[in-house]
Design goal:
homodimer; alpha/beta; Rossmann fold; 6-stranded parallel sheet; 12% strand; elongated; DNA-binding
DNA sequence: CTGAAAGCGCTTACAG
DNA sequence: CTGAAAGCGCTTACAG
């Protein structure tokens, strides 16, 4: 019933007939050339050329049990890190003869679960996920089908899945140490941890543990948790934090977008960065280097992570055992948004100086803009 | 040979057996329930539940000739417009029971051609492309296979493909009229047209035609064509344009990233926007509203385009004829980066005032930073 | 409305 | 190294 509208495409039988060999031999000549006599092999190749034959992957998939399709689920493509990662993943998989089935979960474990189910039904040969936090049914479901799986952007999995990524917690610990080294003691944090997100959670924990190692306690009202890491949320969080704690000297963000929002709002409120306040992000997306001042942040090697994930997965599909953890470097990129802490700040919001009426007006204007 | 590692999944035969019906009836109960007696239908449904049966899509695909997979090729996910578009496309297709095969061409027609070939081999039921500029083999190849196709981000195709998008040229014509209305007469343009890109080409033409309608000729050295629409390229182009023509009052960009780069470099050089210079972009990506000053731009309804593309394609696959052109509104979003032209400007680069040594230093620093 | 049977286009033990 | 044949798991004319 198949036969599409256009002219009927040639089948492997046609190739076999033209080459004067059996169907089986034609198949072998294409898939295991070393096993067939050179003369015959060439006759088949020729037939393939003259007929412009290309195999039907659906048939191939059904009879071989291999679809040569990989499924990847990322939280969102709205985050440039994932956008670039997916791009690199597709490229590398393409080079390896695989095509990429993509979907996005919007940070919703239930959606992710459904999408895993759909991919499995679709017959994917392997799957790429993000992080190590899943709906409880996800892993058993995949395991039951015997489909190889890798996870990305984290470097270790509590579930025994090969992971390729960075040590998020260690990276922010280092960043925080760096700020401590600059003399900062009054910190605030903006974290997109309101939705299930173990990468951001780990980043948050890294910050807190470094601070706690230095005997610094961060008050609950100095931590703002947001859902999506948008610039607008960064602005909003910034205002909240500064209102609650006018004397803070450093703001740590789990994502560049949040930090960019903080910078934008700082400018809006007349707070000088890094003179009055240091701001750091995480991700090192394109915009981070271009804002004013350029943002100090941590580089996430998304493309490299994705290429390695592709390689590991292809290897696993081939039956090889693959390393359980692959940790890539997450380098701290020091730019203009961080500096040593000043003895005496003089920001409009500093307690040492009353906030002027016009400043308050500006601030509330800023708040309105964000809502 | 298929049988995966884990426990063998139930097959439709198992369902049929358990329900006490034939394989054919089981199949019909699932795919054309209205054609089978209610009592039997329910028995089959039950069997499906107790066995946790899910059909093998590869087998389904082979026998029905329908894979329920859609292939989409976009230039890059690095552009937030495409990232959001792909996200929306995947969501809508998912709701319709289709999965999305994705690849990116990096604005290379040859790559696109290869990817089209791969998708076709993979047995996609339909394809989504971007724009109306393809390698010559692409369309015949798709047509020969009888695979439905739609194109996006343009509203008309010279090749008889259903198109869903905006009128790029008209949008920039309106933007240009708006600036003319503000009194601007000295224009420069940054266009990412150095790679094949008919959307940006159309935007460029819209600008030029509006200007020419008003008797304004844009000198060749007032147009910079770049390859990728990056912020860095926007900075670079800005310096080039301003050096060549210090008296210009408005810069039109075919993309927000380029405009954001222009804004960043303007700040860097001490040129005030919009006082000294007006800047407009195109796309209305998230960052456009957040830069300082907020960018005047044209909104591209990427999600809406993608959802409509999905709907049209699904409809075409079902055998319906679909509209050849679907034009969505591309609204001009006026923000803070544009204003009426001033009688006498006094930018550092204005001919009426010698450029100071320190300014030159800053400029060349700016240039260095971009390379 | 239901069943037996052929067929979708490949791959791959099984014999030679 | 090669061929005849069975099989992958579905769908769908074809008869009843």
């Amino acid at each position: 019933m198949a036969s599409r509208a256009g002219s009927i495409r040639p089948r492997l039988v046609d190739v076999a007939r033209l080459a004067g060999v059996s169907l089986a031999t034609a198949s072998r000549a294409l898939n295991q050339p070393e096993i067939v006599r050179p003369a015959i092999r060439e006759r088949v190749q020729e037939a393939v050329m003259t007929l412009a034959y290309s195999p039907d992957r659906m048939a191939k998939a059904l009879s071989s049990g291999k679809s040569r399709i990989i499924g990847a689920i990322v939280p969102t493509l709205g985050n440039a890190v994932f956008a670039h990662g997916v791009e690199a993943l597709q490229e590398r998989l393409g080079e390896r003869g695989y095509t990429l089935l993509l979907s996005n979960s919007q940070y919703d474990p239930e959606r992710e679960l459904r999408q895993v189910g759909a991919f499995l039904e679709q017959g994917v040969d392997g799957m790429v996920l993000v992080g190590d936090l899943f709906a409880p049914e996800v892993l058993p479901l995949i395991k039951r089908r015997g489909v190889p799986l890798v996870t990305t952007y984290v470097c270790a999995s509590r579930h025994g899945i090969p992971a390729i990524g960075i040590d998020n917690s260690r990276a922010t610990r280092e960043t925080t140490e760096y700020l401590l080294g600059l003399g900062h003691r009054r910190f605030a944090i903006v974290a997109n941890t309101a939705l299930p997100n173990d990468r951001s959670q780990a980043r948050l924990e890294g910050m807190l543990s470094a601070l706690s190692d230095h005997g610094i306690h961060v008050a609950p009202n100095s931590i703002v948790e947001v859902t999506l890491p948008t610039i607008a949320n960064g602005r909003r969080a910034f205002v909240t934090l500064l209102s609650a704690n006018p004397r803070l000297t450093a703001i740590l963000c789990t994502t560049d977008a949040l930090a960019v929002g903080a910078l934008a709002e700082a400018r809006n409120l007349g707070i000088r960065v890094p003179t009055d306040l240091s701001v750091v992000g995480f991700d090192d997306v394109e915009i981070a280097a271009e804002v004013d001042p350029p943002l100090t942040t941590v580089n996430v090697p998304a493309a490299e992570i994705s290429r390695l994930a592709a390689d590991r997965l292809v290897s696993a599909i081939a039956g090889n055992s693959v390393p359980m953890m692959t940790q890539l470097a997450a380098r701290l990129i020091i730019r203009g948004s961080t500096d040593r802490v000043r003895r005496r700040r003089s920001t409009p919001l500093d307690g040492s100086k009353p906030v002027s009426r016009s400043r308050i007006g500006e601030m509330s204007k800023g708040i309105r803009r964000m809502l």
